[in-house]
Design brief:
Layout lengths: L2 H6 L1 E5 L18 E6 L8 E5 L6 H16 L3 E4 L5 H11 L4 E4 L13 H9 L3 E4 L11 H11 L3 E4 L7 H11 L3 E4 L10 H8 L3 E2 L3 H7 L12 H9 L3 H12 L3 E2 H8 L3 H13 L3 E5 L2 E4 L6
Helix pairs in contact: 2-3, 2-8, 5-6
Length: 305
């Protein structure tokens, strides 16, 4: 998709225009205009920003995906910054789930950053999403612009979910803007020894709401939601097909044996007990297994059909 096609389909929306998003009118510093490419109608829908570390952990990836899926299943638009890491996971999960997402750039719309997300940029548009920037189309990538653009991410959203954040990170800056805008900030629990948890811990200390599921976010924002949707067979198949070797071995072991503890699984799969423990934790977070007794695990019902 060439620059001429992008330029032809871009809206320049001034602060005084009727189409200028109401949420952005009170944002400081004031936004005089925005350039928007894509589906403007989704600006009228409920939205949640999902943000976090570029160098996210496996745990962060799983949580971002899981919570985004719940939000999208309940018709929430996902807002993020199209950075690597948590931002990318949020956008891609939203698209894969059939939802709509908004990406806010810190450069002109002709200068996609990071370059690794060029395909994601176009996928957002093709899926009915929206790309926004306050910078002119040819504005080059300048790091000084990114902290400032974060006020738009929070400004567009009804609430802001921080999955992982290091000390004094861009994610923490977005959260500060959200607080000044009166938006609800959510963060997820993480290990205090993880460098990506420092920012989240500070947010929790200063009043951010700790959440462990997307449903808690919806409840806090007063948004009606449907819980316990019947799992689509495609979702189950996708999880099975994307399992790594250890996860697949444990999955198959539990498929053949209804209920086992870590030692039994280790013995049957020849996988170290510590690795089994770690893998089961991720599988439980991903709703593949459930802990039914002390240290006893079985597959969730949807994987036994």
């Amino acid at each position: 998709m060439g620059d001429e096609i992008i330029e032809k389909n871009i809206y320049e929306i001034l602060y005084t225009d009727e189409k200028f998003p109401e949420y952005l009118k009170c944002v400081k510093p004031q936004i005089k205009r925005i350039f928007a490419y894509g589906n403007l109608s989704i600006l009228q829908k409920k939205s949640v920003a999902v943000i976090g570390s570029r160098n996210c952990s496996d745990y962060g990836r799983k949580i971002a995906k899981e919570m985004t899926e719940v939000l999208v299943d309940n018709n929430i638009v996902i807002v993020s910054g199209m950075a690597l890491g948590i931002d990318t996971i949020a956008h891609e999960t939203c698209i894969a789930r059939g939802g709509k997402t908004i990406a806010v750039l810190g450069s002109g719309l002709k200068n996609i950053f990071p370059k690794e997300n060029t395909n994601l940029f176009h996928k957002i548009i093709e899926s009915g999403g929206l790309i926004i920037s306050e910078y002119s189309l040819d504005e080059p990538v300048q790091m000084k612009n990114f902290p400032k653009r974060n006020r738009i991410i929070s400004g567009l959203s009804d609430g802001v979910l921080v999955v992982e954040a290091s000390y004094r990170s861009g994610t923490s800056i977005t959260a500060k803007y959200a607080r000044s805008q009166g938006k609800t900030i959510f963060c997820v629990p993480n290990s205090i020894g993880n460098k990506n948890s420092y920012g989240s811990i500070e947010l929790a200390k200063s009043g951010a709401k700790m959440v462990t599921s997307g449903y808690e976010i919806l409840l806090e924002l007063g948004i009606k939601f449907c819980k316990g949707k019947k799992c689509r067979k495609q979702d189950v198949d996708n999880k099975i097909n994307n399992m790594d070797a250890n996860t697949r071995a444990i999955f198959q072991c539990l498929k053949e044996n209804e209920c086992l503890d870590c030692e039994q699984i280790s013995c049957k799969t020849d996988i170290d007990t510590i690795v089994v423990n770690q893998t089961l934790t991720y599988m439980e977070l991903d709703e593949i297994v459930e802990n039914i007794k002390i240290n006893k695990y079985k597959l969730c019902d949807k994987y036994c059909e």
